[in-house]
Write a structure and sequence with these properties.
Mean pLDDT of chain A: 80
Mean pLDDT of chain B: 82
Number of strands of chain A: 0
Number of domains of chain A: 1
Oligomer: heterodimer
Low-confidence stretches of chain B: none
Number of strands of chain B: 0
Radius of gyration of chain A: 25 Å
Strand content of chain A: under 5%
Order of helices and strands of chain B: HHHHHHHHHHHHHHHHHHHH
Order of helices and strands of chain A: HHHHHHHHHH
Largest sheet of chain A: none
Helix content of chain A: 55-70%
Helix content of chain B: 55-70%
Distance between the termini of chain A: 65 Å
Largest interface: A-B, 33 and 37 residues
Shape of chain A: globular
Low-confidence stretches of chain A: 208-219
Structural class of chain A: mainly alpha
Number of domains of chain B: 2
Number of helices of chain A: 10
Chain lengths: 247, 429
Amino acid sequence: MEHVELFFKSIFIDNMVFAVFLGMCSYLAVSKKVSTAVGLGAAVIFVLGVTVPLNWLLDQYLLRDGALAWLGPEYADYNLGFLSFILFIATIATMVQLVEIVVEKFSPALYNSLGIFLPLIAVNCAILGGSLFMQAREIPSLGLALNYGISSGIGWFLAILAIAAIREKIRYSNVPAPLRGLGITFIITGLMGIGFQSFGGMLTGDNEPPEVNQPATVETIEEKEINKEIEDEEDAISYNEVINEEK
Amino acid sequence: MALQLKRRLHILREKYRGKKMAPAFNALHTFLYTPNDTTHGRGTHVKAVDDLKRTMNTVIMALVPCLLFGMFNTGYQHYSAINGFPENFSVFEHFLTWDNFWLGAVTVLPLVIISYGVGLAIEFLFAVIKGHEVEEGYLVTGMLVPLIIPVDTPLWMLVIAVAFGVVIGKEVFGGTGMNILNPALTIRAFLFFAYPTWMSGDKVWVHGAVERSNEIAAGANVDAISGETVLGYLAAGNTEGIAAKYDLADMFFGFIPGSIGETSTFLILLGGLFLIFTKIASWRIMVSAVIGSLVMGLIFNGAVAWEWIPEYSKFYGLMSFEFWQHLLVGGLAFGIVYMATDPVTGSQTNRGKWIYGFLIGFISVMIRVFNPGYPEGVFLAILLMNVFAPTIDHYVVRGNVRRRMKRAQNATIHPKLTEESEALKVETV
């Protein structure tokens, strides 16, 4: 269930393009034809699916606070989080290079059809974004990280597929001259974002048993403050009562 | 009288022929009368009486019953919320009354006038600036917009939304027939996301409810009136009691609160049949959308029946709602008949229409149940499928091309005689 929820959520609700507006550069540049868009989208799915789990491992065993504890107790205090950006982008660049070499060696046809897009992916912010979101959202397991990578990739794939089809459709439309090209594409992206809003807020609610069954509730800071105020007031009232009685 | 008007329009048109304002006068000239011009020698050979204007007028004819019903219903809901719902409800005594109609007309007609006024003004402006004929695309949009918004929507909001919808939703793509998203739904979505408090909740669906609550907040001694839609009521987690509030006939004939034109499934059904009969709207989309919503409703009913979902879940109320009753409440029926079938933004291929319609129904019911923020999620589902319609079309066309290529490759120019045909030949000889 956890997996299904994350899968659905990262494709539709937290869509890379329409919810967080990442990967816009290649999304805008390479969406003129459906066939090339499909190639780029597939490459993004693949690279996200590989780099997010790898970066999860890096984050888990190297970067986060206390991650180095496996080296020995004296390393438990180190927090290498400030290296995240460099290491993540290094992983991504390495992986993209590796993928490129492998694809070129074993499937020259696919390599030719992807062309410049494969190396371009290294600088696609959706890829780095995927890894950083993975870190920020503290995804708990390697399996979920893999799921997150692949499903965000699918979300991006759907977005570029849809806009490529739309752009093919409006190729002969009488768009006002100043808006032709990128301008109209930006407007379409915004309108598509409205369409994707239909999923906004979905699956966010609590689906837990009612409060009575819950063993312990975690107090948020605000609640704590309110409770404290109430207690203070009660103290004050009882103090007044005591004084009144004494009088 | 009429002839005189026609002649005057004609004179005006001749006067402005070739001038900058010509498109505006041409549009007025042909609005009510068929022009005398005929197709000349060269050029197109397709001749049809139902041009864009007639097509649009047909849809408007299908919409008029909904509009009139909406006026009566506005009055009925308002007076019932104040005086209490009548016992022994009879249509003629309590519903089709002058009071109801008058109140409805006074509240609804300004919305219609504003919608048409602003929208057509922008259309005329663009036509004059760009120097092409005025396109009639806004005729239907202008009628749809008042029908899919709550009755108390302030007019200035409508002005802004219509301007946004017509300019960003349609004109930047090059006008009628080029848009990606349905303009009426774009306007609805703009209103929904820009002014959410005016578009959902339990105060907006009955005329006067917002005013009343403001008066109460100011200290007036009057009773609050409110009217939730059936879906809002269910989404709030009330699992029982919908039968006590409205029965099936109420929901089918539309004596329930809701957006102005969407409540009466009966009249929408009539309008839909009319559109299918006149071949304006695609029956494929309508049928497949109905199937899609029924399938999704059945899945949810199944989840409840097999106890996959606990009773304390906030989705329980809407999930246990009978699957076919989803079509009776909210904007689903209206959306399927008048919005999803938009020939411009929907799928163009026949197979694509089946997929497109099915997904609209499917996602609408899914949003209704899963998204507590938008119980009226039909318009968003249609917008989402508008986005994906070109993709569906692209792959349907590609599939057709591939199949035909295959057929062409396999076919031989002189088909070999099979055993059967040879036997036949022998027999005939």
